[in-house]
Amino acid sequence: MISNTFFTRSLLLLTLTTPVSADVAAQEQSAHVHGLAELMLAIEGEHIQIEILSPAESIVGFEHQASTPEEIAAYMHAKEQLSFAENVVQFSDGDCQLESVTVNAQGLAPKPEKQTHKHDHGNAHAHEHHHHAHGEKEKHHQEHVHHEHDEHHGAHAEINVSYDFHCHAIEKVSGASLTLFETFKGLEKISAMWVTEQKQGAATLTPTNSMLNLR
Ligand SMILES: [Zn+2]
Hints:
Layout: H1 4-17, H2 19-29, E1 36-44, E2 47-55, H3 56-60, H4 69-83, E3 90-91, E4 96-104, H5 113-120, H6 124-153, E5 158-167, E6 175-177, H7 180-183, E7 189-195, E8 200-205, E9 211-213
Parallel strand pairs: 1-7
Antiparallel strand pairs: 1-2, 2-5, 3-6, 4-5, 6-9, 7-8
Helix pairs in contact: 1-2
This protein binds zinc ion (ZN).
């Protein structure tokens, strides 16, 4: 396991020492541009850690809590796609295996609440009535909250994914091909930062220029 401390320290160093990275760091705090994702890659020992931050719109096509069957399906599908590393990145060489992946898309996760309601009531007729009345009230409430949210924060959501790879011949890893451009057509550009124990760099990648060189 790569240490988070190393990763944080490395990125901090990167941010402090190169102007390009400082720009990326500034973007991370303010801008949320659809089609533009950020990627951080760190190599330490035999491990490669990758973290990706993308507007949810560019991955699932919306940026709110999934509620329709289509949205829930899109959310589930995207989570599954992201959990297979080959949909996201392919290393040039190095015999790398994915050891762990974490997908964080909290703003999109559907509410489990409705399912518990269904099982609470024995009488089907009573249930229908109750559910209807409750449903309308709930909808109204949600719309109100959503409206307020729009005004104050803007209706945006992001997806954050982390990967940890173990590479048996890490010295052979000279680059990473970002296959996520093929998986998610909504992505137009990726701002990437990378750091090894000896070197660091930054690059902007696109669907036609998707190879991140690491040496
Ligand atoms: Zn957005």
